[in-house]
Amino acid sequence: MERGWKYRRLMVFTIIISCLGMLFAALMIGGNDMVVLAVVQAALGIIIVVAGGYLGFASWDDKNKAREILDGIRREGQP
C-alpha cells in the first residue's frame, strides 16, 4: 500500500469518528429539537460526502493505476 493512502484512510476515519461523536452528543444531550436536527443532518451529510468521495477517488485512482500498468506492459512488448 502506498504511503499516501495510509494518511487518506486516517483522515477519513478521523472525520467519520468525529461525526459519530457529534451524533452521539446531540442525541444524548438533547435540548432544542431544531439544534439537534441540524447537528444530525450536518453530521450525516458529512459522513455521506466523505465516504462517497473516498470511494470515488479510490476507484478513479485504481483505474488510472491499471492504465499505467497496461501502458508499461505495452511499451515493453514493442521493439
Question: What would your notes on this structure say?
Answer:
The chain is mainly alpha-helical and 79 residues long. The protein has one domain (3-77). Helices cover 91% and strands 0% of the residues. The longest helix is centred in the C-terminal third of the chain and has 45 residues, at 33-77. The model has no long low-confidence stretch (mean pLDDT 79).
Can you give me a brief rundown of this structure?
This protein has 79 residues and is mainly alpha-helical.
Keywords:
2 helices; 79 residues; rod-shaped; mainly alpha
Structural class: mainly alpha
**Helical percent range?**
over 70%
Mean pLDDT: 79
Order of helices and strands: HH
Question: What proportion of the residues form beta strands (DSSP E)?
Answer: under 5%
Principal-axes shape call: rod-shaped
Q: Helical element count?
A: 2
| Total beta-strand segments | 0
Topology:
Layout: H1 3-29, H2 33-77
